[in-house]
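DM from R.C. (forwarded with permission)

"hey, sorry to bug you on a friday — could you get me a structure for this? deadline for the figure draft is monday and I only need the backbone to look sensible"
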Amino acid sequence: MGAMFRSEEMALAQLFIQPEAAYQSISELGETGTVQFRDLNEEVSAFQRKFVGEVRRCDEMERKLRYIEAEVRKDDVPIPDVKELPKAPNPREIIDLEAHLEKTEGDIRELSESAVKLKSNYLELAEYKHVLEKTQSFFIEQEEANGMDTAHKSLIPEDNQGATSRGRLGFVAGVVNRERVPAFERMLWRISRGNVFLRQAEIEKALEDPATGNEIKKTVFVAFFQGEQLKSRITKVCAGFHASIYQCPSSSGERNETLQNVKTQIEDLNLVLNQTADHRNRVLVTVAKDLQNWSIMVRKMKAIYHTLNMFNMDVTKKCLIGECWVPVHDIPIVQKALQDGSSAGGSSIASFLNVIDTNEQPPTFNRTNKFTRGFQNLIDSYGVASYREVNPALYTIITFPFLFAIMFGDVGHGFILFLFGLYMVLYEKRHMGAKSSSEIWNIFFAGRYIIVLMGLFSIYTGIMYNDIFSRTMNIFGSSWRVNTNFSTLNESEEIQLNPTYDYTGTPYFFGVDPAWMLAKNKIIFLNSYKMKLSIIFGVFHMMFGVCMSVVNFAHFRKMENFFFMFLPQIIFLMLLFLWMVVMMFLKWILYDANYTTETQFGSSCAPSVLILFINMMLFKADDPEPGCKEFMFEGQDTLQMVFVIIAVLCIPVMLLGKPIYVMMKRNNKGKHVRGYEIMNGDVNQGIELQPETTLEEAKPTHSGHKEGGGGHGGHNEDDEPIGDIFIHQAIHTIEYVLSTVSHTASYLRLWALSLAHAQLSEVLWNMVLQMGLAISTYVGGVVLFFIFGAWAVLTVAILVMMEGLSAFLHTLRLHWVEFMSKFYEGLGYPFQPFSFKLIMEEDSEPAD
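My reply, with the result:
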């Protein structure tokens, strides 16, 4: 958890790597995932870098792998997942892998081309067979219509061209796509002016397209005509509609003989096609076993060469120099990776790392695990923390589910939420292995530990509210007793209980007394109770946020902010809003219904905390009720007046304190520099300092970063004009003073959503489930079965999902705006290490 308190300390390092060991060294660094490289060749185009040839080779191998994978998936061959990611291949193995991929692609492409040719031949033979079969009936019908003997005569003589020249009918037979038949028929009618007789028959079984494998539906046609000119026109129309024309014998005997030959050829071709498909399947099954390993190795190779393109070559051309950000804690890991890379590359000179000083702001790196990653993502969604800034994610682990549970307090609904989160936690390995394309599921799964905690905290607050599906639980026995006889109870619909006589004086052991669920004034009581709780938690939450700013001020050595920002802010908040919280506790403690001797402390004389607070701000007083006092204790009015005056005086301190301090500091520094120049004369030998530069500013800090640069505040205040400092401080002061009021009121959403959730749950119980419970006969059991299903669906859909999402968003807003705005800037940029694991996860994400 130490790393969660603030981001880790980062260092800018130079890597000196020998060219022969560069590939292996970067490969080892990619496996560790501990460094973020900087591009030292930003001005050089991608086509002019040193390793652009190797990147192109990797692109070509990726293209081959995509083709192989497409062919494997086209044949529905399963691709097994890899259990352990292979390492990047050695440079000597790259040539073998490249040759193997080229041979595999050539074999699959040759098999595919051969299969396409065989399927094309099969398609032609299948179409020819259908033409011979379908046209047989056409010729028989025509011969019967002409009154000729089908056994000895034929409509068309054997010599088709001679027949057409002597005035007899000729014909053209073929196959055309079914969707083109209407247009084909109209075109034939137009070119022949109605002198073509077209007969057609659909092929019932769809044929397969050799190139795509899609099903195509075709129709057999025979066009009867007279004259060579019409034959030429029909042939051109067939070519335009991509119709296949087949030679059909005129005599019945020849057609039968040709049909038998075609069927024999189809059977032989089927045998060849099956053998080819079996051979292709065996090849693809063998390839599929290594396909994932090849893809991972090629992606790692490409990532390595992309990284090497960020390096510079030294002047001797014998060493590669790179720069990277690395966590100080991981420097030994990087050094070991460089040693392993040099040993694997066979380099005689060891590679080494050198930490350098810089004024640049380092990236922000918060080391997380699977439990804390979800909470860190909530914070990073608002803005990545500035370097070494206090990380709110550590406290969000507790405050986020707790504030959510205040709005979602119900034992039953919290238990449903907990079970859903627990399911994802227990089976997380299974779901992490199977990548889902559902974005909603991925969001839920990423926040599974958040959901578990939200469910647990909701169960706790549900017990505090004594609420389970809008019902109550009387576990410890109610503290209210009905001191009334049976006749009075039987005759009265409602009975008013007097706390003086009907209350035992011992509070309910844990949470709200179950008797309040039956009371007519339940809403009034719970409203007051939850509203005060929301204010109390809100004020303490904001005070905690203001106190966290002290840690930032101390770390960045800006103690003037402690005196001129933190102290007036916390005093302003405590004297006004914390005092309002104190008045709530005083009211609960001092006023009671059992007071008989002092009526001013009775429940009827209890003042309104809100009215007292408003009068306190306006320096106003109200007349109390007879026998009551306006204030809770003597001297409260004077104390409140002092509080308001001190709080108002804090405003000019916030507004003018820091700018005046900065002006005085700069004046003192200017006198110090001028005195130093007068004392040394020209001893500095031409070295001049800028008017606002001091000797202390010229020295780097121990960590290599100037105290003003990259620190809290996002800018160097020593270089900022004094007018801008006045403006920034005025904006900050106005924003803080106004936000204390608006943010305190914003925490009332805890009360509002809690009340809405409870009332909606009660309405759903009374208007849905109560219909089945009201039937006391056996029929009620059957009706209740279906009504319970509807109630359960509505409960999950509305109260758990919809209300849960609403409470989640409101809790997120309370953290982002009301809490984090007190100390968090979020002006950093994330640490994005060169990691093979992250690269593989990004590549495996399903595309939208």
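R.C.: lifesaver. The first strand starts at residue 10 and ends at 17.
me: no worries. The longest helix spans residues 252-308.
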